[in-house]
Amino acid sequence: LLEIDTASEGLNMELKQKQEKMRETDNVKAMLEFREKLPAFKLKSEFLKAVAANQVLVVSGETGCGKTTQLPQFILENEISSLRGASCSIICTQPRRISAISVAARISSERGEKLGETVGYQIRLESKRSAQTRLLFCTTGVLLRQLVQDPDLTGITHLLVDEIHERGMNEDFLLIILHDLLPRRPDLRLILMSATINADLFSKYFGNAPTIHIPGFTFPVKEFYLENVLEKTRYNIQSEFENFRGNSRRGRRQQESRKDPLTELFEDADIDALFKGYSTSTRRSLEAWSGSQLDLGLVESTVEYICRHEGSGAILVFLTGWDDISKLHDKLKVNNFLGDTNKFLVLPLHGSMPTINQREIFDRPPPNVRKIVLATNIAESSITIDDVVYVVDCGKAKETSYDALNKLACLLPSWISKASAHQRRGRAGRVQPGVCYRLYPKMIHDAMPQYQLPEMLRTPLQELCLHIKSLQLGAISMFLAKALQPPDPLSVENAIELLKTIGALDDREELTPLGRHLCTLPLDPNIGKMLLMGSIFQCLNPALTIAAALAHRDPFVLPLNRKEEADAAKRSFAGDSCSDHIALLKAFEGWKDAKRNRKDRTFCWENFLSPVTMQMMEDMRNQFLDLLSGIGFVDKSQGPKAYNQYSDDLEMVCAILCAGLYPNVVQCKRRGKRTAFYTKEVGKVDIHPASVNAGVHLFPLPYMVYSEKVKTSSIYIRDSTNISDYALLMFGGNLIPSKSGDGIEMLGGYLHFSASKTVLDLIRKLRGELDKLLSR
Ligand code: ADP
Ligand code: MG
Predict the structure, then answer these.
(1) Which atom of ligand 1 is closest in space to residue 383's alpha carbon?
(2) DSSP, res 215
(3) Which of 46, 624, 696, 713 has the fewest Cβ atoms nearer than 10 Å?
(4) pLDDT tens-digit profile of 232-255?
(5) Ligand 1 centroid to 229 CA: how many Å?
(6) Is the CB of 462 under 6 A from ligand 1?
(7) 70 alpha carbon, closest ligand
C-alpha cells in the first residue's frame, strides 16, 4: 500500500529534522497541549514498549480517549525520532470511509502538515497520499483488496485494526487472515484497537496477547426513558406514527417478514402496572407507542424541549439512516421553534456523506448558537464530538439480517444492544455532566441483548466467499471455521451454492472468469453481474439505475391513505412491460428530465417517489460507473453512447435483469383464467400486492424474475419482471442436457426447456462468445 523509498540515512535524518522543526510552530504546540490531556497520552511509553516487545497487542479504551488519533501517531513519531522513518510503513484500518478521511486530516493538522504528506488516506475510488506517506488510514475493505496482490503485506511494519469491538464482517474476516499471516511475518506488529467491550475475546484469539487498557474519564450522565420524555414534552404519539409508517415500505416489509420480539414484549406488558404514577396522557401515549417505527415528531419535540428548558451545550441525535436524518434536518430548519434559525447549527453526520464538513462538526459553535448534530451510529464510537452535553437516542440502528433457512436477507432498523445504548449515552459526558434522552421505554432497554450479534453471523456470505477465493485462502468452509465466531454452516453452504449457480464458481469451488471480475467489485455478486452484463451488452444506463435501486432501496413510497393513486402512478411508469423494475427505470428517467427543468420535487410528489432515494440512486449510479471504469469494463472517454445502444430496448433490459437476478426465478403456470407462480425452494408463491404485476391474470411470457421473497401470511415475491425462456437460456445458470435427452435443464433440473437442437447449439455458441468476452 505504501511506496517505500529504500531506507537511506539521509532521508531518515531529513524526516526527523522536519518533525522537530514542526514541533516548534505555534499551531502544533497548541494542539500538543490538547493531545497531552488525552488519556492515551499518559500511556504513551508503556504503549510503545509493548509494541516493541510483542507481535500482537490489544488496546481498549473509552471512546474519545485518543486511540485512533494518538496511537498510530505515537508509533510514527517514535519511528521518525529513532531514525527509522524512511522504512516504516504504518497502516491503520477503519470500518468506514468517513472516519478514515477525518482521522487522517486530524493527525495531519496535529503534525502541522498538509493531508497526504506523511499521513494520508485511501478509500475506495479516492485517496490522498504521496511517496512521503508513512502512516496511511484506509478502510478495512481497501486492505482486504490489497491482500489479493500482496498476501504477506510485504513492507508493512505496523498494522493497526481499529473498532474491532463492532465485529464488522470485514474486520472479523481480516482477523482470520492475520491469524494465519503472523507466523509468516514475525517482524510485523499488529495492534488491535477496541472500545471497552470484550477486549479479552480478541486477546484469547491471538494466543493471549497482552492487553493495555486506557482508563478514561467521563462526567456522570443522567438518563431519561420514553416515559419521562413524554411527561416532559407532553408529546402525543398517536398520529405521527401512521404517517411515518405509510412512508416507509421497507418498514412495512420488516413488519411483514419479522416480528420484533422486544416490541412484542412491550405490547404484551401491563402498561398501567408498569407506569403507575405517570399522567394519563403519558400512559395513553405509551400504549400507542410502537417501537417498530421511529416517530420523528417525538424526536423533534425532545430537541425542542432541550433547547427551551436546558442549559447550553451541543445536542447529538442518534437516528437510523439518511432518510431520518434528512427529514429531521428539514423539519428543524422549517420549524425554527425558537424564532431565529441563526441560533442553531443543524449538522447531518452520515457515513455515506461524500465529505464531512470537518470543522463545523468538531468545533465549538459561536456563543449563543446551539449545535445540533444528527447522526447515525457512526457517532457511537468512531467519531467523537467533544462538546456534546445532550444525547437523544432513538434506540435503533440499521442492521442486516439473514435467515438461512428461507434465504431471506434484509437491511432494517433494529433495536441496538445494551452495549451500544451505553456507548451512545456516554457521548454526553465528555466535557461536563450530561443528559441522555432515550426515546424508548425502560423495559425495552432492560430487554435489549448485551451485545449485538457479529455481522458475519447475520448477513448473506456470498461476497465474503468470493473474497476468500480471490485471496486463495483455501476451501471456504474450512477457512470460515477458523473465525472468532464461525458462521452457521448452512449460510456458508447457501452462499457457495449461489455462487456456483450464477457462474462465479465452478464445480470445484474455483473462481471462473466472471467470478474473478465480481471479486474486484465491492458489491453483492448478483448486482455486480447485472452491471457487467449491462456494460457488455450496451445496456448500461438501465443496469446502473436498477442496480442502484437494488443496492439502496426502492424509491416508491406507499402512503396509507392514497394507496390507489400511488399504485396507478407506478403502473403508468410500467406501461405494458409487466415489470416493477421497468417502472423504476422509467420513474428515474422521468425524474432526471424533471430535474433538468428544476421540477424534480413536484415530480416526486406527484408520482409518490422519495426525493432522497432518487438522489441517492443518482449518486450510486456514478459510483458504479467509476467502479466499472476502474476494472476496464467501461471507457469513460468514449462517452455514454458507446454503452447504451440497446438501453431503450426493453427486451434487452429484461434479459439483463434476468442475468442479474437469476436464480430468483419463478415459473408462471396457467391455471384456467389465471396464472399461478412456483419457485424451486418453496413451491407456490404470490405476487406482492404492491407490485405492478399484482392482479394481472395472464402474462405474455412464461417466467418471472424477482428481487426478493418475503414471508408473511403467505410467501410473496416483490418487484418482479416477466421474462422469456430465451433470456433464461442465454443468461440463466449452467445449461445441463436433460436426462431424457429432449432438452436442457437449469437450477438442478427445476427448469426444463425443450428447445430444438439447432436453437440450443446456437445458444451454446453465444454463451461461449460471452465467456470469451469475460475472460479478456
Ligand atoms: P478514540 O479513538 O479513542 O475514540 P480519538 O482518537 O478519535 O479517540 O479522539 C481523541 C480526541 O480527539 C477526541 O477528544 C476527539 O474529539 C478529538 N478529535 C478527533 N478527531 C478530531 C477532529 N477531526 N477535529 C477535532 N477534534 C478531533
Ligand atoms: Mg477511535
Answers:
(1) 7
(2) -
(3) 713
(4) 999 988 644 443 333 343 444 444
(5) 30
(6) no
(7) 1
Roughly what angle, to the nearest 10 degrees, separates helices 513-520 and 462-470? Answer: 110
When pLDDT is cut at 50, 70 and 90, the band that residue 357 belongs to is low
Cell digits for 216?
A: 478514561
Q: Which ligand gives the minimal distance to the CA of 382? A: 2
In ligand 1, the atom with minimum distance to the C-alpha of 71 is: 6
Does residue 36 have its Cβ closer than 6 Å to ligand 1? no
Q: Considering only CA atoms, which residue is closest to atom 5 of ligand 1? A: 66
CA–centroid distance, 103 to ligand 1, in Å, is 8
Rg of the chain (C-alpha set): 28
Ligand 1 atom with minimal separation from the 102 CA: 23
CA angle 554, 560, 564 (to 5 degrees): 85
pLDDT reported for residue 731: 93
Q: How many helices (H) and strands (E) does the chain have?
A: 34, 24
Is 427 touching ligand 1 by the criterion CB < 6 Å?
no
107 Cβ closer than 6 Å to some ligand 1 atom = no
For residue 326, the tally of other CB atoms under 10 A from its CB is 19
Burial label for 372, CB within 10 Å (0-12, 13-18, 19+), is buried
Question: For residue 162, how far is its CA from the centre of ligand 2 (angstroms)?
Answer: 7
Distance CA 326, CA 321 (A): 9
Mean pLDDT of the chain: 89
* Collapsed DSSP state (helix, strand, coil) of residue 115: coil
pLDDT at 399: 80
∠ CA 213-219-220, rounded to 5°: 110
CA atoms within 13 A on the CB side of 650: 17
- Alpha carbon dihedral 424, 426, 429, 434, in 10-degree steps, equals 60
Amino acid at 46: E
Of 377, 239, 229, give the one whose Cα is nearest residue 304: 229
β-bridge pairing 388-393 and 434-438 = parallel
Query: Quick one: pLDDT at residue 336?
Result: 63
Query: Does ligand 1 have an atom closer than 6 angstroms to the CB of 61?
Result: yes
Close Cβ partners of 8 (under 8 Å, ≥ 6 residues apart): 86
Specify the pTM. Answer: 0.85
Q: Whose CA is nearest to atom 17 of ligand 1?
A: 384
Taking the C-alpha atoms of residue 717 and residue 759, their distance in angstroms, rounded to an integer, is 31
Residue-level pLDDT at 686: 94
β-pair type (119-123, 90-94)? unpaired
In short, whether 196's Cβ falls inside 6 Å of ligand 1 is no
Q: Report the residue among 59, 384, 423 best suited for mutation to probe ligand 1: largest number of ligand atoms under 8 A from its CB.
A: 384
- CB of residue 635 inside a 6 A radius of ligand 1: no
User: How do beta strands 715-723 and 683-687 pair?
Assistant: parallel
3 state SS of 679:
strand
Ligand 1 neighbour 527 (Cβ under 6 A): no
Which of 482, 487, 481 is closest to 455 using CA atoms? 487
Complex ipTM: 0.99
CA-nearest of 623, 628, 614, 551 to 586 is 614
Output the CA 408–ligand 2 centroid distance in Å.
Answer: 33
Report CA(39)–ligand 1 centroid distance (Å): 12
Weakest-pLDDT range from 5-14, 403-412, 590-599, 739-748? 403-412
| Cis amide bond preceding 663, omega within 30 | yes
Q: In what order do the strands lie in the sheet containing 135-139?
A: 126-128, 119-123, 135-139, 90-94, 158-161, 189-194, 56-61, 211-214
Q: Three-state SS for 383? A: coil
Half-sphere exposure of residue 554, counting CA atoms within 13 Å on the CB side?
25
Q: Is 102 in the pocket of ligand 1 (CB under 6 A)?
A: yes
Q: How many CB atoms lie within 10 A of CB 680?
A: 15
